[in-house]
Amino acid sequence: MKKFLSILLVAIMALSLVACGKTEEPANQGNANTTTEPATTTTTEPAATEPEGIVVNGETIDEHQEINVTLSDEPGTLDEFHNSVAATGTVLANLFTPLVRNMSGVLEGDGAESWEVSEDGLTWTFHLRDNYWQDGTKVTAQDYVYSAQMKLKPETAFPYAGNWYVLKNAEAINNGEMDASELGVTAPDEKTVVIETEYVAPALLNSITFYPQKQDHYEKYGDKYGTEADTMLSCGPFIITDWTHNSSITLEKNDKYWDAEHVYLDKVTLYSIQEQTTAYNMLENGSIDYLGVTDQDYIERFQNMEGLHNTKVEYARTFMWFFNLKDKYFSNPKIRKAIAIAFDRDATVEVLLGGVPRKAAGLYAYVMYEGDYNIREYNGDLIQKMIDENPDAAALLQEGLDEVEPGLKAADWSFKVGFGSTGSSMHQQAEYWQDDLIKKLGVKAIETSFDDYAMAMDNWQTGDFQVACLSWGSNADTAYMLNLFTTGSNAIPCHYDNEEFDALVNKLNKTVDPEERIKLVAEGEKEVVYDQTLVSPISYNCGNIFEYDYVRGVDRTPFGNSGFKTIYTVGRP
Amino acid sequence: MSPMNSDWVNNTEGLTPEMFKTVGVDTTKDRVLRPHISYWQDAWRRFRKNKLAVFGLILLIFLTVMVIFGPIIAPHPHQDTNIKESYHPIDSEYWFGADKLGRDYFARVWQGGRVSIFIGITGALICAVIGCIYGGVASYFGGRIDTFMMRIVEILSSIPYLLVVILLSMWMDAKGVKTLLLAMTLTGWTGIARLVRSQMITLRNSDYVLAARLLGVRPMKIVTSHLIPNTIGIIIVNITFRVPSLIFSEAFLSFLGLGIQAPDTSWGALCSAAQTVFTFKPYLMFFPAICIALTMLAFTLMGDGLRDALDPRQRK
Amino acid sequence: MLKYVLKRILYMFLVLFIVVSITFFMIHSIPGDPLTASVENLPKATRENYYARYGLDQPLFIQYIRFWKLFFTEGSLGESLKYPGRMVEEFIYKYAPVSFGLGIWGLVIGVTLGILLGIMAALHKNRLPDYLATLIALIGTCIPAFVLASLVQYYFTVKHMWFPTAGWGKPIHYVLPVLCMTLGPIATYCRYMKSTTLDIIGQDYILTAESKGLRRPTIILRHVLRNTLMPIVTMLAPSVAGLLGGSFIIESMFAIPGLGTYFVKAINSRDYTMVIGMNFLFTATYVFSLLVVDLLYLVIDPRVRLEVKQNRRSVASNVPDEQ
Fold first, then answer.
1. What is the secondary structure of A484-511 as a DSSP string?
2. Band (C231; pLDDT cuts 50, 70, 90)
3. In terms of DSSP bridges, do strands A358-359 and A535-548 run parallel, antiparallel, or are they unpaired?
4. Do C138 and B245 touch (CB under 8 A)?
5. pTM flag (> 0.90)
């Protein structure tokens, strides 16, 4: 549970949706007021006795602005090059200025004022605005280059380097074959950053985040950088003033930030809460201002509480079962399809998961777009299609079994499902699926095994499983998910070795035209889900956020990384 | 007159042999009024008379009967999920209500009891036996052997249990009750070994042990007749704690995939699953916890009774 | 005497060395590594670079030697893998006192109350105090810590907002966690105390004392308590040592920055250095506490003292003096 929440936060942090696929025109001119609710700020003349407060969107905001939230996990380190804890991203987004931010679904320049993309889609040029570090020095293009290079250098051992292989020469550098200076991130002058990619990635800016890092400051602190609040140097909307490890982090407004005028919060407190129940109690007594709730019982309780309102947010994370194509039985597509069809998604989503997620219709969640095309709209409900075409799952299973081992009856067959979690909710779900599928498929038994995530993943990667269950978060790049099924990929270890599929994905990587791209993406998804049933998607994660009525401006778009800069409170008691 | 004055004792003036007549020996008046019974028979008698202890025994028997027949008489099978009946309230159709997956909780509780009672009792007894023997041997021999044995105990207690469990789950392919017992008894006996040893160290310096040794009683007999009966109190208390503790450990182990496999369950597992929704659906926690508590109560009462029964000082 | 103490200290180090070594090899033989636990997209190069940086690519035995080398030359237990840049011993210095400071309150209060309750239960056998003791023991053992903690938290911080839900730093943060931590020791110690007290009361010398006319409280204080100390001390010392590790459940429930949460998470995230470092600490304190217990035996029980003095330490030796 806590693992899924922390990975959720990665999705929020690093990604965004290109709502307007203007890949060949200069993007928004970095107008700071392009949030969906134009914020007008007026400060009236201070009256002799009572100065009027700041007015945002027609409301006078509270004099003292603060927000209290939870962090799902204690950050490992605030050094972005060495951190392997997903929740850290939430803090980093507030301390630095990425080139662009996804604000309510719209890309806005933060570090950059404007940017262009070349015709072939492989070169991005960013024009930086004036921005300063906490110590007064300027944020330069070289800072962005330094950060990117460090991430790919082998000696840095950046855990998420894999996500940066989209950059030109990144993989070679990370392998030690090229020098870091060859990386496709360069600074022709102090205010220009040029990014070159290996393949066409229209969703680049929603997939990875380019932060600057000041080289001399970083080298001064070396290994100690990021371990304590006083080793940090900010250029973003907030500075970090306190870090009580495993307890709380305090951020305060950074007056040197270029857009400080529109940052209303004076203080942010992030509590490191590991235990869900504690977080729920903190929400209930007002110690925190908003929280994502997944327990059905608590959802009901909070819905009945005064002062709280509820927002549902959709994410790009797919919860699914996947199959080992190297297994004797699961190399047969009919067997895989039968299990995918028989699976009771309705009960799972509505009862087991409390109605919070959305039922899956394919590999991609409803929030995924390729250019202007919504993938779900374009490709339809592949799962329902499978079910409609094959109403009798048990018969289909028997057909598959006959092909693999003639004479083998389903009633004599059993298979194993592996889970990478040992929590009680996973156990409960597994027990339901076990009982339900045995009834629907008529098999003899279904064995379930529970291991901790690291061990489970290890087993899956070595091919020691038949069926397994996991959830996978996508970034905004549609090719990302398809890449997971190419030969040799071990991220979702289906062990699917198919040259044609690999060729399809390669072609996608070279295609610029959105019309062509969506066709390829749709074809890829169809193969993964409908034709080959490499995976059986169950649901798409959603968040059920309960927020106090006095909170305003929280940006919850999927792939958004606005941080806390847009938040303010009105009428906090 | 001082009683120490022996005049009246030695002065036989006036007494003649003719005044006395031999009457013989009357053996009938010298019968032993009660037959000789052994230590253990006496203990059993005393136990039977202790009302609370007998109640404890009956309670245990009742629980055992319920876990055997409960799932059979239940209206629905324990593993049958029926998602439409999720959280069905307690009524005549679902005697203990239904859990989240719509399974009959009455059936599940008693089905779970089978594993729990078996594991709890067997595990506790195994730990107690191994612990007693180990602790007894260590203190019996003393010296280097004692040192060596206690160091082994320390080593075993210091290795992180979670690691041991994970490794075991990797190596053992067969999951189930046997592996469970192995995992639990692997380190579970160390506590009682140390307790037994500490008791014996105290006791072996008692006067009566010293006396026995001076009399030339064989060491083994000293251990069994003197040391063990006086250690029984501690051992029994330890067992009464160990039983519920093992029941909960079993839940922990099953979560890690080592123990019983779904759809089988146990009281500990039911409690663990009920923890997060406890404030909303207390009955899910209530029933298995009560069963665990009743088991512990049964052992406590029987244990207290046993203590009293085996106490040599209370022999009549 | 001195020889005895010195020998025990030597054994202490030996056990520590063995346990840490076993743990080292155990944690490395579990599948999975720090990366699989947290990163989804892992190309080969990333993993290799990571291993190289943290020395995980060396053969296991070399890593083992390097661990000890680091310890003896710099007194360091290594850099944490999940929290890069921070040394494991820093965690210990900062957070062990937190766990200990919290736990000691729970233990002291719990043990004291437990002992008192146990003595009363023994003295008033089969009457109210006895039943009360049994009931408390039942509740303390059969209610899982999590349930108790969440009930306490809900009632005292949400329903009645008398205390902060989570956090650390002020005395008020101690109250609820300590409350939760006392129930366990009360339950355990009252039962043990009752049993040992009953044993002692049956002894002849107590009868003698009573018939001599000594008053109850004096008997308890002078004779009973002293003689019950052995088993209590046997259990107590390792419990005190265990306080350093903190209670995982209480600490995560009340968001207390103690060692408990770090240790459990370390195993799941395969933070090797953290696991080994913490195990080092726990073993050292545990073994040390056992040494203290053995030494306390000498202090408490004059017969043991005599025995050691005369080098006579076994039931089997028929010759009283073995020099």
1. TTSTT--SS------HHHHHHHHHHHH-
2. confident
3. antiparallel
4. no
5. no
How far is the C-alpha of B293 from the C-alpha of B245, rounded, in Å?
A: 11
Task: Write out the H or E segment, with its range, that includes residue B163.
Answer: helix B161-171
Beta-ladder partners of A552: A568
Amino acid identity, position B79: Q
Across the interface, whether the CB atoms of A455 and C52 are under 8 A apart is answered no
For residue A33, pLDDT beyond 60: no
Residue whose C-alpha is closest to residue B109's, from B237, B295, B279, B239: B295
Each residue of C73-120: pLDDT tens digit? 988 999 999 999 999 999 999 999 999 999 999 999 999 999 999 988
With CB atoms and an 8 Å threshold, state whether C169 touches A244.
Answer: yes
C169 φ, ψ (degrees, to nearest 5): 135, -30
- Cβ-Cβ contacts under 8 Å for C263 (sequence gap 6 or more): B160, C245, C248, C274, C275, C278
Angle at C39 between CA C34 and CA C40, to 5 degrees: 135
Q: How does strand A308-323 pair with strand A267-272?
A: unpaired
For A263, which DSSP code?
A: -
Q: Are the C-beta atoms of residues A314 and A558 closer than 8 Å to each other?
A: yes
Q: How distant is the Cα of C242 from the closest Cα of chain B, in angstroms? A: 10
pLDDT computed for residue B84 by the predictor: 87
Within chain C, strands assigned E span none
- Six-digit token string for B246: 């093992």
Question: What does chain C come to in residues?
Answer: 323
Q: Is B263 helix (H, G, I), strand (E, B) or coil?
A: coil
A436/B86 CB distance under 8 A: no
Whether A460 has a pLDDT exceeding 60, the answer reads: yes
Residue C291 has pLDDT above 80, yes or no: yes
Percent of chain B with pLDDT over 70: 91
User: Helix, strand or coil for residue A269?
Assistant: strand
Average pLDDT of chain A?
Answer: 87
CA angle in degrees (0–180, nearest 5) for A164-C79-C256: 95
Task: Reply yes or no on whether the pLDDT at B8 is more than 70.
Answer: no
Q: Give A88: exposed, middle or buried? Use CB within 10 Å, 0-12, 13-18, 19+.
A: buried
What is the nearest CA distance from C195 to chain B, expressed in angstroms? 6
B275 touches chain A (CB under 8 A): yes
CB atoms C40 and A473 under 8 Å: yes
Q: Which residues contact residue A290 at a Cβ distance below 8 angstroms, ignoring those fewer than 6 apart?
A: A69, A283, A545, A546, A547, A548, A551, A554
Cα–Cα dist B190/B183, whole Å: 13
Tokens in use for C179? 């409350």
Asked if B167's CB is within 8 angstroms of C15's CB, the reply is: no
What CA–CA distance (Å, rounded) separates A193 from A186?
6
Find out whether A344 and A436 touch, Cβ atoms under 8 Å.
yes
Beta-carbon contacts below 8 Å between B and C: 162
The span from the CA of B96 to the CA of A40, in Å, is 60
By C-alpha distance, the chain C residue nearest B191 is C235
A contacts of C36 (beta carbons < 8 Å): 453-454, 457-458, 461
For residue B149, give how far its alpha carbon lies from the nearest alpha carbon of chain C (Å): 12
C153 contacts chain B (CB < 8 A): no
Q: Mind giving me the DSSP string for B53-113?
A: HHHHHHHHHHHHHHHHHHHHHSSS-TT---GGGTTPPSSSSSTT-B-TT--BHHHHHHHHH
Residues B183-228: tens digit of each pLDDT = 888 888 988 898 888 888 878 777 878 888 888 888 777 777 777 7
Scanning every residue of chain C, which has its alpha carbon at the shortest distance from the alpha carbon of A4?
Answer: C38
Q: Is A417 helix (H, G, I), strand (E, B) or coil?
A: strand
CA distance B80 to chain A (A): 7
Amino acid at A300: E
Give mean pLDDT, residues A536-553: 94
